[in-house]
């Protein structure tokens, strides 16, 4: 998580004159590409980022996804210019912003930054908060631009209020207005929805997405939530321990993960051992897929929970229900199956398995199966 110590003020472009009052748009940014080339970061004896090669195209929303400590925020801080990388280069529209010999300070990068805790100034009105970064404008032009930005996020007429008078969702929108008001070419957002409760999150996320699309800024959004990354990102970069594991669309990462870690980040999995036999992937649940591996090859099979079906009469192996939990739309089961060491988990549409059913027939949906060669499963 980014600390709130620095607010990056975006530099205004020469032709970025404020729009006349009454216009609804915050204004369109001149979207830029942002490229990390071989970026390495070392803190003390620890390598926190290891050779990151990654680009966000103009106007694209790129989500940095990964578990805590994977280096997402550090990458964002390097893009903002709050941190300087140990090796590698950062380019904005092909122009070097940071390298061994160059370092463009944050305020000259045209990059906006939105903090996880919004970092609004409590003693300033909303209008002043939003106008804070508009240092290149006269005070009246800054006020007009700030009012327009507040209007765009649905807070017109609230400029005289103070942050404590707003709900969490409204504060998030003020922070977004402040970040967008200087029309940055790249907007960097660190876990922008983490402070919101889950219902509000959906609405605010949808609104934010729409505002980002309208502003046409390139955006880099940090999140540790795979579903959020899929909802927001045109592309997703999955990080682990400072390394880029996979980049692609949400669909690509979900359907074709490069390893077990990537698969597990996008869905809950059962993991079982398997062997190649006669062109098939054979497990204790029976054959679950085809394979080109030689007979005897050791494989790891990942089964999504919604693809492990429990029934009473279908073909499959027998399982013993160990637990059952009602989760609203689905029932969550744990089931013991002979030949599988750990209990398997299954999500079934609520009510499809009769109550008090102890023995079930377990079968596998082929679409929910991902097979990895054993040695490659976690590279
Ligand atoms: N200034 C620093 N000095 C030393 N270590 C640091 C510094 N900043 C970050 N780290 C370490 O670098 C690693 C990556 O941290 P970073 O905040 O980038 O991860 P993250 O993926 O954003 O995590 P989170 O989701 O928890 O915010 C962590 O192990 C962290 O402790």
TrEMBL record:
Database matches in Pfam families: ABC_tran (PF00005)
Molecular function terms from GO: ABC-type ferric iron transporter activity; ATP binding; ATP hydrolysis activity
Superkingdom as given in the UniProt entry: Bacteria
UniProt GO cellular component terms: membrane
InterPro entries: AAA+_ATPase (IPR003593), ABC_SmlMolc_Importer (IPR050093), ABC_transporter-like_ATP-bd (IPR003439), ABC_transporter-like_CS (IPR017871), ABC_transpr_FbpC (IPR015853), Mo/tungstate-bd_C_term_dom (IPR008995), P-loop_NTPase (IPR027417)
Gene Ontology annotations of biological process type: quaternary ammonium group transport
Keywords: ATP-binding, Cell membrane, Ion transport, Iron, Iron transport, Membrane, Nucleotide-binding, Transport
Domain ABC transporter: start-end pairs: 34-266
Family note: Belongs to the ABC transporter superfamily.
UniProt-recorded name of the protein: ABC transporter ATP-binding protein
Organism whose genome encodes this protein: Fulvimarina endophytica
